[in-house]
Design a protein that fits this description.
Layout: E1 4-15, E2 25-27, E3 32-33, E4 38-39, E5 45-46, E6 57-64, E7 71-79, E8 82-83, E9 86-87, E10 91-100, E11 108-112, E12 121-129, E13 137-143
Antiparallel strand pairs: 1-13, 2-12, 3-12, 4-5, 6-11, 6-13, 7-10, 7-12, 8-9
């Protein structure tokens, strides 16, 4: 079982596919804000690089099976600024390979968050390819330990 924090939840049973044609991108419901960089007691910059310890993982889980023959690929992006509550121009730091339409509920994929790549904001972007999907919901979150069985 993974150790999770509700503030690090990108998607909770989020519908990313209903009626979406191939090539559509859908932003996660939530953006994780790690806060502004600060200084320590000695005036040295302290960054909020969540990948630094190498223990945090990003997980995407199928919560409602997608239908039709399309696939969904999830990317974790980071940026220093937001634009209209989403990343203005995010840099991809991790990608979880395509979830096929027939992926069973509970199918999970996880990847460690790479060190030295994380800026202030994190967001997940789902990309639909192949045929348009008529259903498909996902959970996405950052957790402390490996959550794939």
């Amino acid at each position: 079982m993974a150790i999770m924090d509700a503030k690090w939840d990108f998607s909770d049973n989020q519908d990313v596919a209903s009626g979406s044609p191939s090539g559509t991108t859908v932003n996660s419901t939530n953006v994780v804000d790690l806060g502004a960089n600060a200084e320590d007691y000695w005036g040295s910059a302290v960054t909020m690089d969540v990948g630094e310890a190498g223990e945090l993982e990003w997980t995407v889980e199928v919560s409602t099976e997608a239908t039709v023959a399309g696939t969904v690929t999830a990317t974790l992006q980071t940026a220093a600024d937001l634009s209209a509550s989403h990343l203005s121009s995010g840099t991809t730091i991790a990608t979880l390979t395509a979830f096929a339409a027939a992926s069973a509920i509970g199918t999970k994929r996880s990847v460690k968050i790479p060190s030295g790549t994380v800026q202030r904001h994190l967001e997940v972007v789902y990309t639909i390819s192949g045929a348009a999907l008529t259903a498909g919901k996902f959970d996405s979150y950052i957790c402390l330990d490996h959550s794939t069985p």
